Amino acid sequence: MDKTVLDPEGLMSGLPDSDYPSVVHIVAQMGESYTPREPFLSAGEGSNPLRVEVLTHFFRRWPENQLRPFVILEAADNPFDRGRTLLLRNAFANRLFVENTRGVMAIGPYPTELLSRMIVSLQSVLGFGAIADLHRNFWAIEKDPAPALFTLDPDLPVWD
Prior knowledge:
The protein contains five helices and five strands. By secondary structure, it is an alpha/beta fold. A five-stranded mixed sheet has the order 2-1-3-4-5, sandwiched between helices. The chain is globular and about 40 Å long.
């Protein structure tokens, strides 16, 4: 059986080696392992899990003279357990932030019928302000579930 694999290296395929994005938007289902107990990303049923360590290794490729990426982590909807998905989203975002990013804004899960509205909202606030401005402006539009922000310096720019 062929398993779907989330491949962060594939994200950069086709980009020149010198072209490292300032913002990375990740959309995936949230999963959880039980030994050890940890959240992971999944491409769906039967896919291999993507652990924080894989993304950490991927983000280490950014040059030292460039700010680490700002990550927008969007948890895909799980209509059977949105509350648990929200908790796993925040736990994964926290671990990702600690490892190798300048900040993570965790959003979702959004029901399928609200996705197009959420995308328009996100596009409308992705200006050139600070990370805190992005978070505050997005939260003003999309209140449920509330976005979570993980950063040491909310005044860092979204784009560098």
